[in-house]
Design goal:
With 160 residues, the protein is of the alpha+beta class. The strands form two sheets. Strands 2-3-4-8-5 form a five-stranded mixed beta sheet, with no helix packed on it. The chain has a three-stranded antiparallel beta sheet with strand order 1-6-7, with no helix packed on it. A hairpin with a 5-residue loop joins strand 6 and strand 7.
Length: 160
């Protein structure tokens, strides 16, 4: 009996320790981060360019953020699988970076880029449909979502 308690305690400790090792995610659905100071777009022009994003009325409807003018590093977080994603409620949207010269945007160089355009208009609806279990209750898994990826046009930040 004591051996079983020790195993359970060890597993709980391991779970606690591992929970602190997960990749950080952006969970604020309507986050309007300031652009990086490295960007060549001024903050004053950024606030006038950025559209106010609607609030999510429920867990099924979210609104696409305005990424333009932001440093690319603020558009998403890198996941263990190597994708850069942003969260909309329980859904995850992959960000695909399109550079002027075709170079790759990586976790190491993402802060060298600023977003100049996006393939999905700000405030477009991201509708979520959850899977249903046999008893008709919704599960926590997404069956479908309006957008799985957003292409972000980026350009290299001019360093002084």
């Amino acid at each position: 009996m004591m051996d079983m308690k020790n195993k359970v305690l060890k597993l709980m400790l391991l779970g606690f320790l591992l929970s602190g090792c997960s990749t950080a995610t952006n969970t604020d659905s309507n986050k309007n981060d300031d652009i990086s100071k490295d960007s060549d777009v001024s903050e004053s022009s950024n606030s006038s360019m950025r559209e106010k994003i609607k609030e999510s009325p429920d867990k099924y409807t979210w609104y696409i953020k305005d990424y333009t003018g932001r440093n690319a590093s603020q558009a998403c977080s890198w996941r263990l699988g190597g994708d850069c994603m942003d969260d909309y409620g329980d859904s995850h949207v992959t960000m695909v970076f399109i550079t002027e010269d075709g170079s790759a945007v990586t976790e190491e160089n993402i802060s060298d880029y600023v977003v100049t355009g996006q393939s999905v208009e700000p405030n477009s609806e991201q509708k979520l449909v959850f899977e249903k279990m046999e008893d008709g209750q919704e599960s926590g898994w997404i069956e479908s979502q309006t957008y799985n990826e957003i292409e972000l046009e980026v350009k290299k930040v001019e360093k002084e």
